Amino acid sequence: MPSVGCSRTRRAVGFGIAAAVGLILAATPTPARGATTGPVYSGTGWKIWTSAGIHSLDRDPYTITFATSASRTRLTPYAKAIASQLTAVTGTRFTVTTTIEAPPTGGCVKEHHLILGVKYRPTGAKGVSHAYPCYTNRPGQPDNHTAWGGWVWMDSEYWSSSHWFSTNSTTNTAMTKNAVTHEFGHLVGLAHPNYDRDKDGTVEPFECVKNSAGRRPVMCAPSGGYMGATTGGKFTTEYDVPGLKQLVKNYGLG
Ligand SMILES: [Ca+2]
Ligand SMILES: [Zn+2]
Predict the structure, then answer these.
(1) pTM reported for the whole predicted model
(2) 221-250, pLDDT tens digit by residue?
(3) Is the Cβ–Cβ distance between 9 and 36 less than 8 Å?
(4) Residue 6 Cα to ligand 2 middle (Å)
């Protein structure tokens, strides 16, 4: 299976600097505890990307734009579905525009801009997409370490083959949507929730919490999420959504 969802952080000059990282297959998530007044960074099936400098999501709106005209044509339906769910879940407004703007070659995007793009093998590797999030660097301010914005390059190969992810067309469609949602989740501050579930000493691909139906978080690396015709592309209710909600709760907490 082709890998998806490999993400790296990008330096944001004057805003926030994050070390480049590859697949985040790190520590066992610490379960969220109740009745806490401080920030929480992980829970069952979700993890906030603190190593990329993001601790929270801003309450002010975010704007979704596209890297190229072809990207806009391809990704607008995905963006609308993602923006709708994120707005409903977080209370922060995400708006899809028709604006074309090229991802920067240095520094970061305009504040609160989230650019979606499609191109062939953006990293050079087959089937690999990348997210480049930035974070705010405003010590002492409530929005310190919020998601600044950033951009995503989706690998065009997902669409150039009709069955890139699966020979089952329903599954293939759902997984294509999940791939876009996964990368977008990185932009707003979610990391891979993989952990050493089988305790063999290594955090492996697909090693994430899953429910009785086998469903993993959409943020699981390299992939996860719902596989249905109408459910594909959604942040999972039991895993990813609590993480998104916590990102907003963390605002102003550090
Ligand atoms: Ca393992
Ligand atoms: Zn990823």
Answers:
(1) 0.88
(2) 999 999 999 999 999 999 999 999 999 999
(3) no
(4) 5
